[in-house]
Amino acid sequence: MTHDPQLYPADRIVRAQKAAADAGLDALLVSPGPDLRYLTGYEAQPLERLTCLVAPAYSAPFLVVPLLERPAAEVSPAGALELEIIGWQETDDPYALVASRLPSGIRRIGLDNHMWAEKVLAFRDAFPGAEQALAGDALAGLRIRKSEAEVRALNEAATAIDAVHLSMGQWLRAGRTEREVGKDIADAIIGAGHATVDFVIVASGPNGASPHAEVSDRVIQPGDPVVVDIGGTMPSGYCSDSTRNYCVGEPPEEYLRAYGVLLAAQTAQTQSVVPGMTAEQLDAIGRDLIAGEGYGDYFIHRTGHGIGLDTHEEPYIVAGSQRVLEPGMAFSVEPGIYLPGKYGARIEDIVVCTETGGERLNVTSRELRILA
Ligand code: ZN
Ligand code: ZN
Known about the structure:
Elements: H1 12-22, E1 27-30, H2 34-40, E2 52-56, E3 62-66, H3 70-75, E4 84-88, H4 94-101, E5 108-111, H5 117-126, E6 131-134, H6 136-143, H7 148-166, H8 178-191, E7 196-204, E8 225-233, E9 242-248, H9 253-272, H10 279-292, E10 304-306, E11 313-317, E12 330-333, E13 336-339, E14 343-346, E15 349-353, E16 358-360, E17 369-371
Parallel strand pairs: 1-5, 3-4, 5-6, 9-17
Antiparallel strand pairs: 1-2, 2-3, 7-8, 8-9, 10-11, 12-15, 13-14, 15-16
Helix pairs in contact: 1-6, 9-10
The structure holds zinc ion (2 copies).
């Protein structure tokens, strides 16, 4: 697979080693997942056998892989890095191998936040004197600000998911079940260029009042408002996530009023993004507007989440967060109003904070779309 050469630059491990030193970590241990891909470009399979990038704060990094995975690692972008790739045999203890290769006197080790517990415990035994900590504390600071190439990759992902929303009228109709519609949408997510489908929410009528309803066997009824929240991962590794709202037939009056409030709130929020504001200030812009119209008790989640190689990552746009927004940060703005037993609505765009403001990557109309 070809990659934008700027997407996974060669200096990331060095930057991670510096971040580890700054965080008081003697080494980072990174197993397969978005952190490993971010640092090396290697999309390794998460397996019971240990694959692990070892990045000591002050000595050369290396990648430990099962011998049978070494050819795949070598042809991945990791093979082009200045990184020793060490294969271990089925009869070796890979944890002891990692310990033997690290300088003595390791006191604090950062493990990637999603490492499997069985590996965490095996590393605890391999480094009995060392404290275990989260590598995320060091890595999030790197991943949170996207490079130009990363923004391009997020833009491609947004364009792909926008294309699926634009075609919704082909699949979303009264008389079909959410599950039937969801399957067509999943096929379209792949058809639009994603490598994987990460989630498909088709929440009709009262199901829309649950923010994370997925799909059910409920038959969509005439006049139902429907929340459609969909996303996938592109071959680049970067994720999409966008929510739009549809109504099959005439929408209820009360719903239209709530939708108008929500649209005003989400629009105000996306227009207000500016470097220097805090995450909680951005959250409050939508929350105060919704509360002022009497729907405060029905906006039951944070405004949004960062997005990149993970669908949910830093920064979280949530009350109480003093996180200052900076150019390069990418996150969702997705306020919602949920009326239990009736329906719900959520409008979601991915927004990138630029030097001067916020740029929406999802650009389909945010108006309620009435489908026949
Ligand atoms: Zn979403
Ligand atoms: Zn989201």
